[in-house]
Amino acid sequence: MMRCRHAVCAAFVVAMLLVCPILAQGDAWTSWSAEQAERIGRAAYVRGRVGGFFDMRLLKTERSYNYKLAATWLTPDVVRATARLLQLRQRMPQHEVVALVDKAEAAAHTVMLVEIDPREGSGVVPLDWVAVLQFGSGEEIKGAVTPALRELPALAGVLRRNFDYDRFWVAFPLVNEQGGSLVPASASTATLKVRIYDHEGRVSWPVSPSIEARVRQLEQGGVAEKR
Question: What pLDDT is attached to residue 108?
């Protein structure tokens, strides 16, 4: 009987060791160090270019011949890394920093912080530029430039701003109107395509586990549809 009781206790301890890390993952980010948070945020930052190095046909000044492109994918991990850095730097209480994350994730979208720097030419980013997001070989998802997202601190990213670039917050839905995922289960990469006039640039990231978990949450109706 004692041997059986010990076996039951041992099984319970093993079960708790397996379960506790899973339960702790939800708020583990609140104990990240500044170095951890910054490393996570920087990993989501990529750079590219829209247009060739030089277009001999373009000798006018009403448009640039190419554009420097940088983008930060504000995944759930990056949102939390940004909020954690704010907490450490501004001595914010726990409930306030959690509220920042909740506000940043109040819609069924993922957000890209897109930065564009026109080279030569007019130095102006045209209003009709287009951004689409594609997961693997899935359908292209057109983004919506959403200036109001600028006001959410957890969507600012961890990098200090480079004022040579114009900044745009672009939102892309992760689920369709029926609540189905727009992220194919087999997708291992996400590609952002930015088109300005007749030029296109692309940057890519691996699909992170936090995005896959967020899609599952959205499919189950765990997040409000609108801000």
Answer: 87
